[in-house]
Design brief:
binds zinc ion, 384 residues, 5-stranded mixed β-sheet, alpha/beta
């Protein structure tokens, strides 16, 4: 089997919508249709060939042909026949073999500990691994990122589809980290480096962009979703119509140093006052809570209010319906979340946003790991 070498073509890849100007070759149509079959099986579970034809609009002949190829590469297995009430030949059910290939996910967002994992094709985490960084930066940090990936690769018990990496910083669509100040990286071709070191397909993305993919694929996210990660900093990942948006400078969702309001605010590491990060970053909230000496309701309410003020124009402009917050539940749940939603509602046209959803992310600590794996699934198999 060779799940690591599917034909890549017009299947939308990371951060790109389908290219409608590119000529569609027969081989492209085939890989597009194969991705469609896999996507349908991923979404619905056990299906017959006739079910797949119905869901996709492909002919039964085309579906049978593509399924034969997928069975050949072990990605799809026959389960046996469905018990049917009506007479005639019962249909054979098919499903994706979640262990036909595994995926390695790497999370570099915790500067003290790089994490990696092996997941199956359904996104279930099979093993996790850690590398203490000792605060390393620059080349040393890059070497430790390779080491974190290697540990998971060594633990894999199935052929690997690829390696996905979520990293802090601004990352272009080729997996070069343009800038990640906390890791001392600028113009670091991390994807090329890992590809060379590991000999596998590697996809590198910003950690918030990986997280939003996890929430969409394995949580209960809708195709139009903004996920805000609140940790050492504040950043967001954005999906519109199911497509990740990277922006003109690959910096979509870099909202941490947007100043909220005109009344100043706490000083920020960047030199300004009142940045979203100054109000909301976890270390700042924890420090504030310790200093307040009360139950922290006032502090958390103000942080939530500032988040709502910053988000209202974004939600209005993009006509978003769903926003997920990812971070420590003890800080985000309760006063902070309630104040953010209240502020958003106060500042928006209720008629068009009456159903606005602001909630905690369904996934928790492993959101970046599983999101990095989801990016590999999308890029290598067209399953998103
Ligand atoms: Zn700032």
């Amino acid at each position: 089997m060779s799940p690591s070498t599917p034909a890549r073509s017009v299947v939308p890849t990371w951060g790109r919508a389908l290219d409608t100007t590119a000529k569609v070759l027969p081989s492209h149509a085939r890989s597009h249709n194969r991705a469609l079959v896999l996507q349908t099986l991923a979404a619905h579970g056990e299906l017959s060939r006739a079910d797949i034809a119905r869901h996709t609009g492909l002919t039964r002949v085309t579906v049978s042909d593509l399924v034969a190829e997928l069975i050949d590469t072990s990605l799809v297995v026959e389960l046996g026949q469905r018990a049917e009430a009506r007479p005639g030949k019962p249909a054979t059910l098919l499903q994706i073999d979640k262990d036909a290939a595994h995926i390695v996910g790497v999370d570099l967002s915790d500067l003290a500990t790089f994490r990696s994992c092996v997941v199956d094709l359904e996104g279930t985490v099979l093993s996790t691994h850690e590398v203490d960084t000792g605060g390393a930066t620059g080349q040393a940090a890059a070497a430790l990122a390779v080491e974190a990936a290697r540990r998971a690769v060594a633990a894999a018990r199935a052929p690997l589809l690829g390696v996905g990496v979520g990293t802090p910083g601004i990352v272009d669509s080729r997996g070069t980290v343009l800038t990640a100040p906390n890791l001392g990286w600028s113009d670091l071709p991390l994807q090329d480096l890992l590809t060379e070191e590991l000999g596998l397909a590697v996809h590198v993305a910003n950690d918030a962009n990986a997280a939003v993919m996890a929430e969409r694929r394995f949580g209960d996210g809708t195709p139009d979703l903004m996920l805000i990660r609140i940790g050492g900093g504040v950043g967001a990942g954005l999906l519109l119509g199911g497509v990740p948006r990277l922006g003109a400078h690959f910096a979509t969702g870099e909202i941490g140093h947007v100043v909220v309001g005109t009344d100043g605010g706490p000083p920020c590491a960047c030199g300004k006052n009142g940045c979203l990060e100054a109000w909301l970053a976890v270390p700042n909230l924890r420090r504030g809570l310790a200093a307040a000496g009360d139950d922290g309701t006032e502090l958390l309410t103000e942080a939530g209010r500032r988040l709502g003020i910053a988000m209202a124009p974004v939600v209005g402009t993009l006509d978003l319906y769903e926003i997920a917050l990812s971070g420590p539940p003890d800080l985000l749940e309760g006063p902070l979340l309630e104040a953010a939603l209240r502020t958003l509602r106060e500042r928006m046209l209720i008629a068009s946003h009456h159903d606005l959803r602001l909630r905690l992310a369904a996934l928790s600590d492993d959101i970046v790991l599983r999101g990095a794996a989801a990016i590999v699934l999308g890029a290598e198999l067209g399953v998103s």
